[in-house]
Amino acid sequence: QSFGTPASYLVLEKLEQHEHEAVFVGGAVRDYILGKRATDIDIATSAEPNEVKKIFSNTVDVGIAHGTVLVVLDQEPIEVTTFRTEGTYSDARRPDEVQFVKSLREDLLRRDFTFNALAMTKDGKLIDLFGGQEDLKHKIIRAVGVPEERFHEDALRMMRALRFAAVLDFNLESATFEAICNQAERLENVSVERIKMEMDKLFLGSNPMAAFQLFKETGLHKAVPLYPEKMLGVESALPFASVKEGWAFFLVAGGYSASALSQAYKLSNEEKRFIAEVETAYAIRKERPFTVDELYIYDVPVLEAAEKFYRARAMDRSFASFPQFKEEKNKLPIQSPRDLQVNGKDLLKWADVKGGRWTGEWMKRIEAAVLHGRCENDPNKIREWFMNDFNSKK
Ligand code: ATP
Ligand code: MG
C-alpha cells in the first residue's frame, strides 16, 4: 500500500463490507500518480451520508448538505462524500442543490479537470473515464466535458485552472484556455473567500509565473480584486517563500495600501500584519539598504520579502549577494528587549526616584545604546552607563 493511510483503506473496506461502492478520488489520486504526497484524502461512495454515519462511530457533519461526512478513524479525519451531481447553477457560485446519484461515473462527470476526475479502488485499480492519466503525462489541464459549460456553471474553476498551472507547472489545453477567455467575467460572481483560497495555493506553486501570465492572456485578471497592473521583475521574487509573501508581493507590485488589500481579500490578522510590515520595510529599502535598526525591528521573512521585491523592481537578479539576514540579526548584541540584562526594577533601585513613565523611556534608551554598541549588555556596564546619563539629564 503505497497510497493513502491504513485508516483510509479501512474506511473503503468497511463501506464495501456494507455493500457500498467506495473509491479514492480527486487530488489525492492525481498527486499519487504524479509521485507526490497527497495532503488530504477524499473518498467517494455510493452510501448516503446517514448510512456513512451508521457505519462509523466517530463522524463529524462537515457538509451534509453537499453529501460530505468527516469520518475520524485512528484519529485521522477522512472526508467521505456521497456520489453526487451538482444540479443547476443559477449564479456561477454554488449549485442550487446537489443530487445524490448511484453511479461513480456521474460523480466523476461533475469534477473540474480530467486529472481531478480520476478514481482508485482499494486494490489500486484506476478508473479513468476522461483520459486523466494521459493529460497528466503530457502536463495538460483539460476541463471535463464542454469547457465553456463547466466554467459557466462554476466560475471558480477558472481560478482553479490557473492555480493548477502554477502548482503543477502544466499548460492549458486550447479549448479550456479559450473558454476561460470567454467566461472570465463570470469570476466576479465568485466569493472572495473562494478566490483567496485558490490564490493562496497558487502563490505556493512551483511556477506562479505561469499563472500570472495566464491571468493576463485570458483576461481573468480583470475579474480578480486588486490584481496588480504591472508585475515588473516578478521572476526575481519567485518562488514565494510563503502565502503571505505572495500577498505582500501583490501589495508592492500593485502599489496598494496594506489595509485596502487586506480588506479586499479578507486577509487574516497574521497576513495583514505581515504585509503592513513589508510595506514599510519596502519603502525604506527603496531609499537605502537596511541599517541595524531595521535588522533589529523586522523579522527575517519581512526583511527577505522587502529585499526580494526591491530587487524585483530594480530587475536585479544578483542572488549570490542576497543578504544573510538571519546571520546578520544573530550578530546584533540583542535580538529583542527581553535579551537586556536589566529591567525597570533595576532602574528604580539605582535611581532612587519614584517610578513612573521615565523607567519605560530609559529602558528604550538602554535598548538603543546596547543595540548600537554604545554600551555592553552587562548589568554593571549598563548601570554605569545609566547613572552617568541619568544624572547628567536630570
Ligand atoms: P488540493 O491538492 O489542493 O487539495 P484538489 O484537487 O484535491 O487539490 P479540492 O478542493 O480538495 O482540490 O477538491 C477535491 C476534488 O473535488 C477535486 O480534485 C475535484 O475532483 C473536485 N472539485 C473541487 N472543486 C471543484 C469545482 N469547483 N468544480 C468541480 N470539481 C471540483
Ligand atoms: Mg484536496
TrEMBL record:
Instruction: Indicate the segments forming the CCA-adding enzyme C-terminal domain, all copies.
Output: 240-385
Q: Which cofactor does it need?
A: Mg(2+)
Where's the Poly A polymerase head domain? Answer: 24-142
Q: Name one Pfam family in it.
A: tRNA_NucTran2_2
The record lists CTP as bound by: G27, R30, R111, D154, R157, R160, R163
InterPro entries (alphabetical)? Bact_CCA-adding_enz_type3_sf, CCA-adding_enz_C, CCA-adding_enz_firmicutes, NT_sf, PolA_pol_head_dom, PolyA_RNA-bd
Instruction: Please list the reactions this protein catalyses.
Output: a tRNA with a 3' CCA end + 2 CTP + ATP = a tRNA with a 3' CCACCA end + 3 diphosphate; a tRNA precursor + 2 CTP + ATP = a tRNA with a 3' CCA end + 3 diphosphate
**UniProt EC number:** 2.7.7.72
Key word Chaperone present: no
Which residues does the record give as Mg(2+) binding sites? Answer: D40, D42
**What GO terms describe the biological role, i.e. biological process, of this protein?**
RNA repair; tRNA 3'-terminal CCA addition
Q: Identify the residues that the record assigns to the tRNA nucleotidyltransferase/poly(A) polymerase RNA and SrmB- binding domain, covering every copy.
A: 169-224
Provide the alphabetized UniProt keywords: ATP-binding, Magnesium, Metal-binding, Nucleotide-binding, Nucleotidyltransferase, RNA repair, RNA-binding, Transferase, tRNA processing
Single GO molecular function:
tRNA binding
PANTHER family reported in the protein's UniProt record: CCA TRNA NUCLEOTIDYLTRANSFERASE 1, MITOCHONDRIAL
Its quaternary organisation is: Homodimer.
Q: Please, what other remarks does the record include?
A: A single active site specifically recognizes both ATP and CTP and is responsible for their addition.
List the HAMAP family hit by this protein, alphabetically.
CCA_bact_type3
Family note:
Belongs to the tRNA nucleotidyltransferase/poly(A) polymerase family. Bacterial CCA-adding enzyme type 3 subfamily.
Role of this protein: Catalyzes the addition and repair of the essential 3'-terminal CCA sequence in tRNAs without using a nucleic acid template. Adds these three nucleotides in the order of C, C, and A to the tRNA nucleotide-73, using CTP and ATP as substrates and producing inorganic pyrophosphate. tRNA 3'-terminal CCA addition is required both for tRNA processing and repair. Also involved in tRNA surveillance by mediating tandem CCA addition to generate a CCACCA at the 3' terminus of unstable tRNAs. While stable tRNAs receive only 3'-terminal CCA, unstable tRNAs are marked with CCACCA and rapidly degraded.
Q: What is this protein called?
A: CCA-adding enzyme
| Annotated source species | Sporosarcina pasteurii (Bacillus pasteurii)
